[in-house]
């Protein structure tokens, strides 16, 4: 089978590696019955997508003669639009965009997870922060308002320490920015705390501009909540469930490979990220990032609902969401 790789070029690594980035755009889709297009981000928690592409796992499960195309996305909104319009058949995205589009009426399904963990709370060196109480009056940054990492940080601060952001008339000032810039913003003193998706927490550590305040297993919804999920459209699922099964089988095989061959998978991730972004992450950064994630295709529907409830309680959502029908575990159970 033939594999066609379509590379979406970005100017900087910052926008494309942010789990809640704000830029948009992608390469052209498949648009053919004998071709399939898979989407993902060049993020460390999307390693299964990179491995599947490099090792040809989709070619192994799809019918002979199927062309496999790949699109690389800078943010969840662009990815979800591609799913809804049929530009891509499936792929890996953060859970936040999937939930948001589902609650807005999109007919999509989460059919597997990609990874859990990966969010770390960092504090700036010299920010005079020793405890959560010290964050009062300080400035924290997240990729976007109400994105996965923002919700995780604000839920933890509200539930465990009773501290909220200025958006809720609280005592923390919130700003947004691309995670690749957090280290320089720490160095300049522009922000004090960051809700950081990997690999940028490990990058900040390597640069020496900040240190971990709350490890990934201390952050709200970070232990079992998927950091990335595999999504497809409900319309395609109803039209061709066999195709969805093939895609999920390939994703499962790739995830198993990541867990059984971590060192080779890290090298694939480093090389793929460099190929797409023209920037190379160090082995040290990827090693540290890897330790804060768990690669799994098992998806916890209850955890996703609890995360959505936290978004509502923090007033990111106007109505309490009902996610019944979003998750379909049928294909990972086959």
TrEMBL record:
Compartments, as annotated in UniProt: Cell inner membrane; Periplasm
Signal peptide: 1-18
The keyword Signal appears for this protein: yes
One GO CC term on file: plasma membrane
Record's protein name: Sulfate ABC transporter substrate-binding protein
Similarity comment text for this entry: Belongs to the bacterial solute-binding protein SsuA/TauA family.
Swiss-Prot/TrEMBL keywords: Cell inner membrane, Cell membrane, Membrane, Signal, Transport
Main subcellular location: membrane
Pfam families cross-referenced by the UniProt entry: NMT1_2
Superkingdom classification of source: Bacteria
UniProt-recorded Gene Ontology molecular function terms: ATPase-coupled transmembrane transporter activity
InterPro entries found in the cross-reference section: ABC_SsuA_sub-bd, NrtA/CpmA_ABC-bd_dom
């Amino acid at each position: 089978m033939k594999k066609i790789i379509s590379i979406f070029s970005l100017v900087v690594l910052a926008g494309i590696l942010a789990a809640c980035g704000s830029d948009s755009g992608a390469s052209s889709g498949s648009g053919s019955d004998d071709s399939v297009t898979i989407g993902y981000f060049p993020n460390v928690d999307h390693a299964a997508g990179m491995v599947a592409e490099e090792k040809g796992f989709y070619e192994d499960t799809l019918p002979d003669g199927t062309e496999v195309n790949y699109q690389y996305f800078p943010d969840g909104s662009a990815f979800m639009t591609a799913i809804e319009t049929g530009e891509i058949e499936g792929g890996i995205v953060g859970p936040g965009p999937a939930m948001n589009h589902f609650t807005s009426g999109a007919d999509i399904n989460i059919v597997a997870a990609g990874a859990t963990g990966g969010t770390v709370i960092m504090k700036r060196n010299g920010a005079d922060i020793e405890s959560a109480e010290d964050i009062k009056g300080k400035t924290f940054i997240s990729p976007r308002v109400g994105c996965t990492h923002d919700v995780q940080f604000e839920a933890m601060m509200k539930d465990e320490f009773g501290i909220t952001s200025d958006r809720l008339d609280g005592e923390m000032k919130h700003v947004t920015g691309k995670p690749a810039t957090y280290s320089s913003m720490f160095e300049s003193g522009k922000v004090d705390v960051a809700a950081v998706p990997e690999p940028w927490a490990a990058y900040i550590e390597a640069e020496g501009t900040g240190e971990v305040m709350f490890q990934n297993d201390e952050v709200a919804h970070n232990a079992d909540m998927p950091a990335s999920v595999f999504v497809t459209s409900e319309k395609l699922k109803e039209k061709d469930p066999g195709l969805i099964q093939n895609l999920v089988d390939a994703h499962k095989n790739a995830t198993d490979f990541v867990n059984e061959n971590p060192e080779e998978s890290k090298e694939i991730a480093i090389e793929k990220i460099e190929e797409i972004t023209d920037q190379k992450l160090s082995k040290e950064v990827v090693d540290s990032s890897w330790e804060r994630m768990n690669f799994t295709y098992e998806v916890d529907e209850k955890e996703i609902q609890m995360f959505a409830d936290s978004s509502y309680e923090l007033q990111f959502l106007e109505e309490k969401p009902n996610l019944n029908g979003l998750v379909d575990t049928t294909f990972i159970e086959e």
